[in-house]
Structures
1.
Amino acid sequence: MTRSPNHPLKQLQDIHRMMERTSKFIGLSGLSGVGAGLFALAGAALAQWYLLAGGLNGYSHSLHYWPAQPHPWGWSPMVFYSLDAVFVLAGALTSGIYFTTRRSRMKGQAIWDPLTKRLLLSLAIPLLAGGIFCLAMFYHGFFGFVAPATLIFYGLALINGSKHTLHDLYYLGLCEVALGCFGLFFVGWGLLLWTIGFGALHILYGLLMYYKYER
Amino acid sequence: MKGIISQLRKAFDHRIRLGVMSMLMVEEWVDFTHLRDNLEVSDGNLASHLKALDREGYIELRKQFIGRKPNTSYRATDKGRAAFIDHLAYLEKIINLQRGEQ
């Protein structure tokens, strides 16, 4: 064998690297996680403020707040929570898209390719199912289970999507699922769960990813 | 048998050709720009390697329009896949041989 000893091994490493690069979307910026987390914290703060203004303190009845008399702000809980949810969702999506496109542009990568589509699709399927599930629970009056269920479905979506992107997303997904399962036994603490799951965990994860891959 | 192996080796001997095949093994229909950006090569360079792989019958191409832009994407043929897997086995064999020598 006259070839240099590490030649075939290096070829195999190259092949592995190429396959990984092709099959994984690595453009998701950690900062988008931080942005989403901040919006979630803001949304949770608004909800808490709303509950306090309505004469409820603490978390114990957070999602069960269905007052006999109108809320002093003039918004029914349904309207308020929906608006709050839309605010958080829009903020999280905007910061996600902003930081990710910025990162892709800096690295000169295409953003809208088959990989991104596959990642979004695998995220969207559990999320959509979870969304419908939660709406149905709202409809039937099981308010207490909505918060843990959103976390569980969101975590499953992340685990499902982690095949197409950084493996670290898998662990974030596991944390969300664990938190959601834990929350199923502490009904009424939904707001705190959301604050931890969508706020604190996102910020923590985002910062970790930022320092690990982007600096 | 020896002839077949040396032929395989020739087709995959270049980093870029190996890279193209690795990517096409995990992904169906990869377009030209995606290959180019991931392999960090010039258009002309990539095109000549793609032509070589096409000549071997290892890849096939599809031309289409996305909006008004022409788009060419590539896919590994069954023959290409088989050849690539053979090549992997060949690499593994060499590595094992070297381990044995040490």
2.
Amino acid sequence: MEPIEIAELIKGKFASEVKDIVEFQGQVAVLIKKDKLLDIMTFLHKTPELHFDYLADLCGVDYLGKKEVRFEVVYNLLSIKYNKMIRIKAEVPEDDCAIDSVIGIWVGADWHERECYDMYGITFKGHPDLRRILMPEDWDGYPLRKDYPLKSDLGDKEWKAFKEVIEIGKKNLAYEVR
Amino acid sequence: MRNNDMKIIAKELQTREFTISMGPQHPATHGVLRLVLDLDGETVVKCTPYVGYLHRGTEKLCENRTYISALPLMDRLDYISSMANDVGYCIAVERLSGIEPPNRAKYIRTMMCEMTRISSHIIWLGTHALDIGAMTVLLYSFREREWILDLLEMVTGARLTVSYPRIGGVRNDITQEFLDSLYKFTEEFPKRIEEYETLIDQNRIWLQRTKGIGVISTEEAINWGLTGPMLRGSGVSYDVRKYAPYDAYPFVEFEVPVGRNGDVYDRYRCRMEELRQSNFIIRQCIEKMPKGYVLAENAPDLDMAAKGCKKLVPEMSLSRAFICVSEKYEDISPPGEFYSSVEVPKGELGFYIINDGSGYPYRVRLRAPSFVHASVLPKLCEGALIADVIANIGTIDIVLGECDR
């Protein structure tokens, strides 16, 4: 079964949930509402003709100011048996920043969901141990959000050696081969 | 009389679980991994891994750089197989933007990836054996690793963080001299593999420390999202090189070694067979190496050294030229998103890139195999002895630079 057919199959079964189907360079992405996520995932996992047994990746995306709904959680699924891939994207609005955990279907989602929570602040309902994973436990803010700065406001003051490096670089210009 | 006394003492003595923190500075954790172990005697009751000590925010940094200047960051993920990461990133961007590298570049990349696989696997073998108690293998394996690093240095000029591939090809061409010395290596290497195997394959201590330890069944392995030798040791022949072939892998022959029991020993066997297959692939690449250019015509422009010569712009030093290029606006079209994965020595390294057409990636997600493999540690360790924790950390072949990103 081709990926686009799988996407149509999902649309046929969960017509009210599917918002969009996009095909790009041979990969198919299905954009869904988050309410019936678990039903759709269970359908993909349990149906023998689909058999998406392997969760390749789970991550969040922040569309600040680009889309109406700010966050999306992206699931890249692969069926090892049939070698087919599909991408499910669930919309998560900012004011209700929570989504069901898929840990009951794929155990491997455990750390991916923790990382998504750590980086975007999206809560996963039903996750047994939702803590920060990469950042320190007392960290303030969610680093991968688009409104989180890459550098702090301290700028050059934060790292004094930066000015010294620039000055040394200027001096060294005199010795360069021209 | 004595027995009775003993019973009374045992009744009065109270035992309790105690917690020890293993790492982050510990020679057997292969980096800055911290495990909090709850122990009942010598049995591990609960194991909680803590990662993130090496978190550098690679994903965030990528979002603020052009596609081409994000490449050196990929070296720093899995620093003992940096070439494979670079190739994976380049392939992801190529697939996203529809660039097709020339055939010669594909073969060079394949060859380089397999060289890195060998170097990564032998450093794994050496350190894993050292952790378990067989020190000699380390000394032998570093001998071959040194050889490979010298060969890499011949082409790329760097030993570890190579940054050799480019989007649409490779940075510079290889020489005949390099091919000759690599061929010499491939002739010699199978004998070296046998040397390692004579040291530990029939070693009774090695067998007792590895057989039946850290068992993970086929269904569990897939469900946990394991990849690479971790998954293949449990009997699933999932290999990205076969499932979604990239570069020159469709043109070369190789087998995917598969284990049966899913224990530490089977994963060891898988990796040893992979060494042989890698060697075989390198030989085929040398024999079939096509002629031609090493960079695609529509590759994104970059005034760095290409096609074998370094170009110095007059009145401008190389370092300044590099700075100018990094700031350059490179438009990679069309907007869209793509998930692409490659088989690095540790497993499946996935790149999920969203392009919004601004020249900068909107989102780069790195699916690191070590991250997933570290999450399975509690499953492997709980109920086992504390000595087996070391064997389990060794067998998942973890690199924390990649795990923490």
